[in-house]
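ARCHIVE CARD
CATEGORY: sequence design from structure
SOURCE FIELD: tokenized fold
FIELD CONTENT:
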């Protein structure tokens, strides 16, 4: 089980950076409403930030210290107001590992369980990743480079670029430093800065057991963290408290609210329909799994029968089998009548 946790975390770290050298200019800013913006972050989770007279409120920190610094510089290209608050939506490294790139005096807000989760799931595995796994990976890349005789070939040039970006990434993640949240909450946290009202809500476990949603009440905009993967297969990690049934209920409840714009954890900024699309994916997948299970197929056979092409999703295709396994486990342990939506 521990090997699986480590592997999953490695997937998240690699996914968040994709081992490609990227510049600050590739962070795309979108204005959502007056003084409210989103940053499409290809290196990690999407960012939202609100500019007020007294300072800036930011949601999520990016995947590495450098990514965090790039986010800060991108915000400063829009406003010179100080960054006052940093809200973290959940424990995953592609949302919290950029904290070290933010100002030292920023006030960090998160769910009460995030700090413990970071210690339990991120710290130890990140240390193992840096001390053992990534150095071994770099050594293997070096061997591949040494085995290529034509140093001018396209194969060599592509591989050396990959190797160099991995080395840069290794140096970057050495500077990851998690900072304890200054403000934590259990169910709700409301605060007001100038005339702007912000609502933080813990709706129960869904993607993780510490996932929160951030509602910008004046704008009808919500940042969902990874409760929404807009257009791609979602990550589901049992060890981090995933609960697909409650995830669906969260999305369905949010869809009933007066929301205009959704900033997902990953994918394009969407309208309210993004909440329903994510819910419908889980409902559709759960029904297919239930039908096949009732027809006598076991888990491995079900994984073979359900194809990526069955869904209008692109990206993280390796997660479909994991999604199936998680839902199959919930259906088996909790019963089909409980699962009805």
């Amino acid at each position: 089980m521990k090997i699986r946790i480590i592997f999953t975390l490695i997937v998240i770290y690699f996914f968040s950076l994709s081992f490609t050298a990227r510049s600050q200019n590739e962070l795309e800013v979108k204005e959502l409403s007056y003084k409210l913006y989103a940053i499409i972050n290809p290196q990690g989770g999407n960012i939202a930030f609100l500019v007020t007279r007294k300072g800036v409120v930011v949601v999520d920190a990016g995947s590495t210290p450098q990514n965090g610094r790039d986010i800060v510089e991108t915000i400063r290209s829009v406003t010179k107001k100080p960054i006052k608050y940093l809200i973290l939506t959940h424990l995953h490294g592609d949302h919290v590992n950029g904290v070290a790139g933010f100002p030292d005096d920023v006030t960090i807000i998160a769910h009460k369980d995030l700090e413990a989760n970071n210690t339990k799931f991120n710290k130890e595995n990140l240390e193992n990743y840096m001390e053992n796994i990534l150095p071994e990976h770099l050594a293997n890349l070096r061997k591949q480079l040494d085995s290529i005789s034509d140093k001018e070939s396209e194969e060599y040039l592509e591989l050396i670029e990959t190797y160099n970006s991995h080395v840069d990434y290794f140096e970057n993640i050495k500077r990851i430093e998690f900072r304890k949240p200054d403000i934590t909450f259990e169910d709700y946290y409301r605060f007001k800065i100038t005339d702007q009202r912000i609502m933080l809500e813990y709706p129960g476990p869904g993607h993780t057991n510490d996932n929160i949603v951030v509602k910008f009440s004046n704008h009808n905009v919500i940042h969902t963290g990874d409760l929404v993967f807009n257009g791609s297969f979602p990550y589901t990690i049992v060890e981090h408290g995933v609960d697909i049934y409650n995830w669906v209920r969260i999305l369905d409840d949010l869809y009933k609210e007066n929301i205009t714009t959704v900033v997902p954890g990953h994918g394009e900024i969407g309208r309210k329909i993004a909440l329903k699309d994510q819910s419908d994916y889980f409902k559709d997948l759960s029904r297919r799994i239930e039908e096949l299970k009732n027809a006598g197929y076991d888990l491995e056979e079900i994984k073979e029968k359900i194809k990526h092409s069955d869904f209008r999703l692109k990206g993280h295709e390796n997660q479909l089998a994991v999604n199936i396994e998680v839902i199959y486990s919930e259906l088996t342990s909790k019963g089909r009548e409980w699962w009805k939506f």
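CARD ANNOTATION: Confidence is low (pLDDT under 50) at residues 1-25. The first helix runs from residue 2 to 17.
SHELF: design records, drawer C
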